[in-house]
Amino acid sequence: MTTRSRAELALFSTTFIWGSTFVVVKAGSLNISPSLFIALRFGIGALIFGLLMFKQLKHIQYQTVKKGLILGIMLGVGILIQNFGIYQTTASKSAFITGLMVIFTPIAQLILERRPPKLGNIIGIIIVTYGLYLLTSPSGSEINYGDILVLISAFIFGVYIVYLDIYSKNEHVLHLAFIQVAVTTIIAACAVTFEQIVFVPTTLLLLSLIYMGICATVFSTYVQTRFQKDTTPTRAVIIFTIEPVIAAVLAYFALGEILGMTGIIGAVVIVSGILISEFLDIIIDKVGNKLQTAEE
Q1: With the CA atoms of 261, 265, 268 and 272 taken in that order, what torsion angle do they form, in degrees rounded to the nearest 10?
Q2: Domain enclosing residue 239, as ranges
């Protein structure tokens, strides 16, 4: 197995966990306020990271702290906004809207790395925009404030993926992951002071926090930080396209959420647009190469 294949398989495993988080967050939304949920979730993650690397803390380099701080701010703000959005919309809708980070990533690359979008990206953006309209249209289930917040977070995550690809090269993975989680914990803890605190310690909520802290925070953050650099941002986000599908299936069985026919069509259009965005140019290049070979 090649280094890239191993990396993409690892990223694929995190996608299943991320897909489940929408349902877990939505299920616990009645028993805990959004910022407190994030603060406790990432606090658990930061504690575990700290225990794993206790003897290494004094060896963290300044450049790693600087990069981790920037990544942590983006991750923390993005997740905070996303969590507030999930509280005000459905788990399935929020997952498909979050999937738009796959479209935002090429845009971020254009701005940050001067990589212009390819034809497939442009077509994909147009298709996804129409799919988003169907998903949030009046006959689908109407766009609401929560949908807008999740859309904003999707853009932040698109930028985050590009910066993670840039910053994770030649850095100590565990150190960089720990700083991101710690910074996110601090941001969420600060946000708690501005919200009406709700905390009903049910068994389900406590299990959800443990699951989110260990699997969705420690494992996922480490794996993405460790392996994304061994592939490309574009290939990474292709893998992430399965996330909203997983979330929608779990939301149906666990929460009884139904997108509605128009919403389902919109979701399919979004996934189709994402796949076109990432695969059309590859197909065109392969066809072009074959035609050129045939002519020769």
Answers
A1: 170
A2: 3-117+142-259
